[in-house]
Amino acid sequence: MFGCEQQPDESADPVTEQPAAAALAGLTETDDSGPFYRRNTPSAAGYVVAAFSALGIGSVLVPVALGSGGGVAEFVMLAGLVLAVGFLVVLMIGLPLTLMAHVAVRRVQSQSIHIATFGVVGLLTGYLVRLGLGYPYGLPLPAVAAVGVSAAAGRAVVNRRPR
User: Fold this and answer.
1) How many Å apart are CA 145 and CA 153, to the nearest integer?
2) Is 19 helix (H, G, I), strand (E, B) or coil?
3) Among 36-45, 114-123, 128-137, 150-159, the least confident range
4) Which of 63, 67, 88, 150 has its CB 3.0 to 4.6 Å from that of 58, i.e. a possible disulfide?
């Protein structure tokens, strides 16, 4: 205020926004958050929120993609089925893929790349479910796309920095 603004530290680490000496010494504010945590990615609690958000969004999008034309009762039944099965799929398939994607993009600052990466993780998860269930019982391609969109939307919910 009144021309007394603090100038940014030019020697700051662009990833952690801390002075370079502190970053080199490993003295950062985020050391207690785990070995894979970077300011560009959500915390573990953020990923839990993203997973539940993706499940909630997917429980609406997947029945729409499946074309539930039987009215409200069929839609609610399919949404409940998507929630139940989706929770198990997230634990068995989505969690390992999410951890790999997290490690891959943890140093990338662009949040749009993070969102796109998790959209691809959702597409891959939906496609693996499609292959695992076989042809007559597998997800149709519009439902696979709905899983990808809901995964990207879930990651967008916990966006660290708007970019």
Assistant:
1) 12
2) strand
3) 36-45
4) 150
Per the CB < 8 A criterion, the answer to whether 108 and 40 are in contact is yes
pLDDT in tens, 1-35: 455 555 554 554 455 454 444 344 343 444 444 55
Q: Quick one: tokens of 100?
A: 């790999």
* Closest by Cα among 6, 24, 7 to 15: 24
Q: Comparing C-alpha atoms, which of 125, 142, 146, 121 is closest to residue 61?
A: 146
* Predicted confidence (pLDDT) at residue 140 exceeds the cutoff of 80: yes
State both tokens at 109. 């600052």
Taking each helix axis from N to C terminus, what angle separates 111-133 and 141-157, rounded to the nearest 10 degrees?
150
Q: How far lies 3's CA from each of 8, 53, 54, in Å?
A: 14, 44, 46
3-state secondary structure (DSSP) of residue 15: coil
54: number of Cβ within 10 Å: 30
Going by pLDDT thresholds of 50, 70 and 90, the confidence category of residue 161 is low
* DSSP element (H, E) containing 13: strand 12-13
Cite the DSSP H helix spans in the chain: 20-24, 44-66, 72-89, 95-105, 111-133, 141-157
